[in-house]
Each structure stands twice: as structure tokens, then as C-alpha cells.
Amino acid sequence: MPNQKHIEPTVNATEIQEIKKILVVCEFPDVFLEELSGLPPDRNVEYGTRFQEAYRMAPDELKELKTQLQEQLDKGFIRPSSSPCGCPALFVEKKDQGGKRLCVDYRPLNAVTVKNKYPLLHIDILFDQLAGARVFSKIDLRSGYYQIKIREEDIPKAAFSTRYGMYEYLVLSFGLTNAPAFFMYMMNSVFMNELDKFVVVEHKLYAKFSKCTFWLKEVSFLGHILSEKGVAVDPSKVECVLNWKQPETVTEIRSFLGLAGYYRRFIKDFSKTAKPMTSLTKKNAKYSWSPNCEEAFQSLKKSLTTAPVLAQPDVTKPFDVYYDASGNGLGCVLMQEGRVVAYASRQLRKHEANYPTHDLELAAVVHALKIWRHYLLGNTCHIYTDHKSLKYILTQPELNMRQRRWLELIKDYDLEIHYHPGKANVVADALSCRAHCNVIEARPTVRVLCCEIDKIELPTKQLAELYNLIIEPTIKEQIITAQKQDKGMAFIREGMDEEKRACFTLDDQGVLWFKNRIVIPKDMELRKRILDEAHMPMFTMHPGSNKMYQDLKQKFWWIHMKREIAKYVSECDVC
């Protein structure tokens, strides 16, 4: 054998040798065949393609599976497959009408599929296209996916396994990652050039009559109710929010905020309200459900149930923007002809918390312009602010770098900034406005209250379609209350000797006076109100510190009064 092994390597294709000269070949002639005669014998190792096992189904599901497979085979939607890959089939309950839809768990295939980046239309764009509509119809394609063919070379990739064998789809199947994007592409390619015409017949697309609706005054669409009045939240979709139990994990909080956030355009100050809950979702944040979280949780649920009907925007008419800026966040309201179009809000970023009041107010305006750019750019826009100095931002000569950058953005818009005293923000069911002395705002629907107001002949102020009853105390009433709560005032009253009595006096109402001037306690909010009304009157220019002091000292007195007035005037942005 060693000699034979030595001879064996000399055998090669270039030499013609007779088999008889090589003993090992002569010993095993069956190994050296000129060609294969048939299938190989059974071996311990055999090549095989592993498919993901079909999901086990209940007897009723197997019966339904067999029926649907046969129907789709008869229609030519599927065919038997020998594809090297396959995914398991399963059933999904159909919406509303019951029944089962055959789907495929294509997760392994989707994981290696290059995603189709064709954009799906934003829901707000879809709503805007319906502006001005009074009658609505919905057309649902009959098995819309099955009306789109799969390319021949890609058919084996869509194979699926069942109890009754392997099949592959020749048409678009439920479960493929790019199916929604491609379906949107097809619909846009069909309807894009004929948005106002009916072209389903021309392109041989077929509708299912039982799922179509025609000539309705209102219609359910993507979780909303559309009508001539505008857009409202679909009550059936909000029901699950009302029944939502208190979140116990961060994941449950994110899930709730995701669902509630879908309707955030209906909720005033959504970001501010949800802040206690969103703070728990931050990285490394300790989960602790506080009373503030519970209050935010219940407030969001209540806001959804009382959400108003939002008006559809008309880009041919001017828009009004009301905003609010505070240390908690920015809130904006877009209105048109006295009706709310949308709400928007966000929390302050870390660096914005250090902004001065003027910049924070301007940041709210910029936020509104950016988020509603598609409405406001090219249209007349009125910005209403309760920060009077902001009215002069467009003509202010000295600006910091941040203000200059924002001003460049503002100049792209045809807008006017109007000073509106007090907070003019619109809430879900009321417009809260400032009321002085004898001005009362009331709901016209409350007939009894309106009659009583008419009897005492108090003037009323109408604000669009929504009203709120607000009565603010006069300055004198506020001073009386502040004096009673101030410890320094009590000390002066109790310790007045003969010398002090010559300067300080008490009237019948217990109000403390210094000579002929009312004493203002150390209440910064009260003092600021007095200074604001003296320095920013409705129809005159801002007075200087000397003029302002001479005017105020006729009626009021407090320690270091002149110094505080000078400081206030020096910090006025307009001056």
C-alpha cells in the first residue's frame, strides 16, 4: 500500500493511463464512474432549507384558511411555491364587519428589505384639503392591496407557509413593510393630476359598495369627525383614553402620551399640562407617580372629552394668532374669524429658561410662525400680544443677535403685531379676557345671567362665540386686601403715636393713608400693576421717570418710591 500511495499522485489529466495499471482503482471500480446513473443513496447528512414553521391554528381557523386559500388560488392572487424562503400566515380580525383577514408575518423579510421612503401625507394636509366641504363621501377600494401586482422576480420573496403547503403572492400582501408607502404612491399617481375628478373607473380600480358612504353631513376619518363646522375628536376613539388606568411604568406613560398626543391640536397647552408625566420619561429619571402627575393625567383625559370643534382654515382670509409665554412653556392659538383653527404648545428648552421676558414673548411668536408656516406664509396675519413693547419690535433700533435672527424670519411674513391688554388666550370653552371695574363678560346661552346683567345696566363685551365670566378687583380693592395682609401695615396701625398720627391716618374702611396719599404695602405684584398702568397708558406716550413720579405721588406713597420708578423706566424696552 505505501508503494501504491506513492504511485497514486502520478495520475493526472494529462497522462493517459490504463485503469489496470493502478491497483487501487482496480480494487474499487464502482467509485470511478464515467457518469452518475441516478439519485444518490440516503445519507446521514442531507441539505435542506428550513422554513419558519406555520403558526398553529384552531379548527375554525383552519377551515377558514382552507377556504381563503382556495378562493385566492381561483382568483390567481396566489400560487403554489417552491421558494427557499417563507413566512408563517395568520389571521387578523377585520374592522367593524367581523370576519378574518389572511395576513403573513413578514418580519424576517421586512428586516432585510430596503425601506420605501415615499412620504405618507400628514393628517393636517388631508384635513386642509377638505376646507369648505359641506357634503362628504368615502370610497373604499375592494381589497385594495390585491389590485397591485408584485414584480415577477420578487414573487418568491413573498412566499408563506401554511398547514396546507407553501404558497406565494402574485399581488401585494398584508404585512409587507413597503406596502402602505407603495399603495400611497399608486393612489397619488392615479389622483394627483385629477384631484377634483373621479378617475377610479379609468384606472380600473374597483370599490366595495358596502364600505362606501355618500352624501353625508359628517363623516369619520382617521379618528376624527369631519363636518361643515370643522374637525372634531371621534368620541369612539376617546373612549379608550377615558378608561385608561394609571400608568405604572415609563412604557405605559409613553403609550398614553402617544395616544393623547395624536389629538394635541385640540388641547390647549398640551405640553405644559403633560410636563409632570413627560419628565418621568427622561433618561435616568426615577419613576415616582406624584399628585402632579395624577392631576396632569386626569386633565388630559378631561380635555379630550371636552375638545372643541376646530374650524377648517381658509387660506384666502387673514389669520389671528394669540400666544402665551411663561416659565412653564410656550402656548399658541391659531384663529380665523373668531373660531379656533388649532392649538400648539411646547415646553421650554434649558437655555430658554434664562431668556428675559421680552425674548420669551418673541420666542412664542417665532414658534407660532414656524409651526403654522404653511398657513401664514403669504397670508395676512395678526399677532395679538399683552406685552406692549413687542409691538415695536419691527422698528426697534437696537437688537441683540438672537432678536436679529428672529427678526429675519418674521420679515418673511405679512404680519401686524397688536397690543391686546391682558391674557387673550383662547381655552377649550372660553375666551378669558381682562375685565376692569364694571366690565363683565358672559355666556349668551346663560339667559338668566344675561337678564340680570341687563337689569343693572352693566356693559357687556362680546368675544367671538365663546365667553367667560371674569370680574377682577379694582386697584383700590387690591390695595385694601394687600394692606390687611402686610405685617408692616399692622405694625404702623398698632404703634402709631401722636407724632405719627400727624402723617398717617386711617379712614372708615380701615385703609392707611400717608397725608393725602394711600399707602402701598410691599407687594411687588401690586406695585407693578400701578407702574404698568401709569407708564403704559392706552393713548399716550410712555412718560419719563420724573413725570411718572410727579403723577403717581399725587395718589400713592411707599418707601423708595422715586427710586423704584426710575429703575422701572430704565428697564422699559420701548423707552
TrEMBL record:
UniProt domain Integrase zinc-binding: residue ranges: 525-575
Pfam family of the protein (one): Integrase_H2C2
Domain Reverse transcriptase RNase H-like: 314-413
Alphabetized Gene3D superfamilies for the sequence: 1.10.340.70, 3.10.20.370, 3.30.70.270, HIV Type 1 Reverse Transcriptase, subunit A, domain 1 (3.10.10.10)
Keyword hit for Nucleotidyltransferase: yes
Coiled-coil residue windows: none
Molecular functions (GO terms): endonuclease activity; hydrolase activity; RNA-directed DNA polymerase activity
Residues passing through the membrane, by range: 167-187
UniProt KW keywords: Endonuclease, Hydrolase, Membrane, Nuclease, Nucleotidyltransferase, RNA-directed DNA polymerase, Transferase, Transmembrane, Transmembrane helix
Residue stretches making up the Reverse transcriptase domain: 93-193
Name the record gives this protein: Uncharacterized protein
Annotated organism of origin: Paspalum notatum var. saurae
Record lineage: Eukaryota, Viridiplantae, Streptophyta, Embryophyta, Tracheophyta
